[in-house]
Amino acid sequence: MVIGQTAGVRLLMRFDYLPKFIGLLIPQILLMIAFPLFMGYTEEETAWTVSNILVVLIGIVMGTMTCFLGAIAGVLGPSFVGPLMQGFQLSFVLVALVRLICLLVFNSQDTQAYLDSTILYFSLNVAILILMLILVPVFFGHDVIKRALFSKVRANLNSVGSEKDVHTVKPCETFEKISFEAYIIFLTFMTTFLIYPSIVFQKQQDIISNRSDWSIFILNVVVSIADLLGRNLASRKPHYQRTFLGTGCFLRLTLVCTTLLIGLSSSPFWNNIFVVLINAGAIGLTNGFFATAACNSIPGRLEEHEKEFGGFVMSVVLNTGIGFGQLVSLISFQRLF
């Protein structure tokens, strides 16, 4: 995703976003169709290699789309940044719903049933992507979007003569203005994915006995809904003080300690199902709140012509934090469990 976002920055300064999204959604649909077919109907070694390649391609396409969405959010400001962040998390809730359908229809602990549930899962995803493909022109046809993207900002970015130097985006200077918020977004997601899902899932057997698939589903739902609630709360305010963001980000480190205690301790308290679920909810709630609060604060610190690039930075540091957190978790904690 980060590779796709980095490549996408080259396309930011042109506001013909509609054909860009359509051009990305179509191959994404084809990749989603191809993935389960290669998994189920090719030799195991070939399926493993091809599926990894497909995952990389899916990530690149998703990264490029989120790059564009972040850029649009930067232009439109907090009134769009908050709903965008909520929309990102709502997609996880929707994924949980799709997963629930698969769990109800198939016994995923059976190999063939697991494959069938995977095909159903990707089929539902394809249906959602087709719906997105239909709705994207509606979104870009809205008067507010058209005015913001195709008129005011385009005029700023395409200025000529003496105005040209004034409206040139200087990436380093622009990043310096929002570096604090960018680091908060990065650290928030890095901390979350340092412990979730890796360590959080260590109690998967304790929620529903002998059904780790349902236990993982419940943990994912708790984190996703709490995260969505946190993003909703943070969206109600367009700007946050840096002291508040820094303090909150620092205090979230206590969740690393509590999660490690839950994963490693044999104490009845830390093994209590309600403690496990409350801790998972706290991870989601604080992640959604502080990430959205930092994202909401970015547009207010930039000039009008810098906001698109600011939105791009927002999307990149978000996914970089996720990837870095998972990588550190894999290297640091796998031997503990």
Give a verbal description of the structure.
The chain is an all-alpha fold and 337 residues long. The chain has 13 helices and no strands. The longest helix has 33 residues, at 44-76. Residues 155-166 have low confidence and may be disordered.
Low-confidence stretches: 155-166
The level of helicity is over 70%
Rounded to an integer in angstroms, the radius of gyration calculated over CA atoms is 21 Å
**Structural category:** mainly alpha
Q: What's the count of strands?
A: 0
What would the average pLDDT be, to the nearest integer? 83
The main sheet comes to: none
Count of DSSP-assigned helices = 13
Q: Return the string of H and E elements.
A: HHHHHHHHHHHHH
Distance between the termini: 28 Å
Strand content: under 5%
InterPro entries: Eqnu_transpt
Organism: Halteria grandinella
Membrane topology: Multi-pass membrane protein
Family: Belongs to the SLC29A/ENT transporter (TC 2.A.57) family.
